[in-house]
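Chains adopt folds. We examine one example:
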Amino acid sequence: MTTSILSTGRMLDDDGRPQRTGTVWSACAHIITTAVGVGVLSLAWAMAQLGWVAGSLLFLFISATSLFTATLLEDCYRSPDPETGRRNYTYMEVVKSYLGGTMYKFCGFILYTDLAAVSVGYSITAAKSMLAIQKSICRHRSGGASSCRFSNIPHGLGFGIVQVVLSQIPNFHKLAWLSKLAALVSFGYASIAIGLSIEKIISGPEGKTSLTGLHQVPSEKVWSIFRDIALSYVFTVTVIEIQDTLKSSPPENKVMKKATKLGVMVMTILFIFCEDLWIVDLANVFVVVHLVGAFQVFSQPVYRLIEVWATRRWPKSGFVTKETAVSFGRGKFDVNMLRLCCRTGFVLLTTVIATALPFFSDMLALLGAIGFWPLTIYFPLQLHIAQKKIQRASLHWFGLQLLSVVCFLISVAAACGAVHGVHKGLKVNRPFQFKE
């Protein structure tokens, strides 16, 4: 791996692109930002249903499996050699390099549907957090005399406006500061929840947690649990894009594995110990700030797909390729009309869906469940088999297939829980008329 220097003195990496500057810490921040997001408000409830024993075991299994498959995927960033081979810039390019065109198309369809759906989920969750803050203030002022029911639309629109501005951040390389901020505030709301959990545990009989979970109708309990866990570990879909921000020395796959281990360890601890059902206003503020960053991290691959396609389709179009320098106060930044239009359009679309269908979170859980198995489990395992040329029907091959089958069954259970939630949501909600 070598670097070169332009006549301007700017350093380039071995692929001719500007030298990457990402580190293990910036990568870890991206991972925590993507993982601790859309499902965090309901994970505590899922833990309460399962109890400490089953809940902890399930989370540990899913986190260990996600860590394992993510490290396999990270070895495929370069091909054929994981340290000196040609770079693959996206998840789809990795699949195309090792598994061919048919799998490449299938992966692309699942991947970008999942990314777009999760972006809608972040908008819904952020609006609900802001709504919770408004209701808390209302109850405090009215002394509990008011019903304090509000529409989610103003909050969804406000979140969308912020995202329109932040969507003009060109790429992952320039997004590190936002991911670091998002990762930092995730510790804030997690610490609040952990503190409240400890207070509740020591408060007496009413505060004790259960080893076996809450008593509930078995079918309802199963559907609810798997629906909420479906989106807990979705960081794998952005692993390759995050890895593409890292310095080339030491080797990217080794640095990325360290970042993934650290990120998964942190978010697993947060998931397991955030077992309180009440998250105070400050924690909701932290959640909103976190989701501002998480939305952009998940949207960047979608932006890149559209912009790369447009650049290849119309390489001489000024609308597509021209960068115009704009001054704002003391700062200067580049504006590209394609970037401005397509990213603003994407944010507007997600905002409309989120405000129209706030119960769409169950649909997102369904899409997340459908995407979990192929994107987090199946493709990384198949890439590893192809890269290492593992012999079919060998012991190693059977072990990987067994893991795949177990995770497939978890995805099916999560999908069933999501379908159950969608059915209930359609019965009681109407578009643009949601109040809470």
The chain has a mean pLDDT of 79. The beta strands are 4-5, 11-12, 78-79, 86-87, 324-328, 331-335.
